[in-house]
Amino acid sequence: MKRFAEVGDLRLERGTTLPGVRIAYETWGRPNVARDNAVLICHALTGDAHVIGPAGPGQPTPGWWDGLTRYLDPADWYIVAANVLGGCQGTTGPSTEAPDGRAWGSRFPALTVRDQVAAEAALTDALGIDRWAAVIGGSMGGMRALEWPLMYPDRVGTAVVLASTPAASAEQIAWSAPQLAAITSDPDWQNGDYYGTGRTPATGLGIARRIAHITYRSEYELASRFGRTRQGPDDPRFAVESYLDHHATKLINRFDPGSYLTLTKAMNTHDITRGRAGDLAAVLGRLKARLVVAAVDSDRLYLPAQSRSVVVAHPAAGPLHVISSPYGHDGFLIELDQVGKLITSQLRV
What we know:
Layout: E1 3-11, E2 17-28, E3 38-42, E4 78-82, H1 113-126, E5 132-138, H2 140-151, E6 156-162, H3 170-185, H4 202-216, H5 219-226, E7 230-232, E8 235-238, H6 239-252, H7 257-268, H8 280-285, E9 290-296, H9 304-313, E10 321-323, H10 331-334, H11 336-346
Parallel strand pairs: 3-4, 3-5, 5-6, 6-9, 9-10
Antiparallel strand pairs: 1-2, 2-4, 7-8
Helix pairs in contact: 1-2, 3-4, 3-7, 4-6
């Protein structure tokens, strides 16, 4: 069940303050007597706090990592997931009301991944959790899982980073650029102030999703699954075009374009060495938490080499765990058995 925490004003990395921050979250299980069994799950770009469970009122889709409890048993673990700062599923973001009663819209401040972690830390305080046994995340969630023990070294036992990177690369930023342009070029974008106008830049969001989804899957999967087949006798689209259209429509029906823009820009800021003394090895060398890193072997968005660079720079995190999957980047979500067994092997009750 979705819950809400009012965590107050949040000082952002760029010096401004975001007032009256609200965070939507869900929990499974309970804290034990020692309160040392809490696990934080960090979602990816278009995920939310609904990690586990069916669709229902206020929750149009099933849990995005449904089945995780086969590996993280709520009888043993207190599992927490929060909708990220800047999101659109109950946490303060561009679509939520500013103090003047109007949607934030274009006035919503630029965020960094570190701001999002700071918001999760505020939720951690509100829940009375001193230390996470583990912080687990993939993709954008992996960025936060990597930042958590750097920002709060005494509050994380183990960080599990899946299909992610120590810094957004030029290519990843380049892939983001046409997605952002698609949204802001939509005539219904209205400079980000479309809330309450009856017009939403859904076309731009759909194009952004089509571009992104290509990077989430592997060439092999697209070729073997769709090839050059047409959708049907009365549908001139190639089957792969229909597939992308389907995923665009799904996202349009559940996600806010303003949040997509805000979160994508935040991902582009990600670099764990930014503003910290030394190179990657020096930064990771200051970790107190145990670091576990996994890559998807067919990932063409967050390349296995980027995950390997973390282990090379910080040998204590080794070896690099490899998730074998034909599905590309989304393999960290699809190959739940491999990922679940990895998590189980790294976390002990």
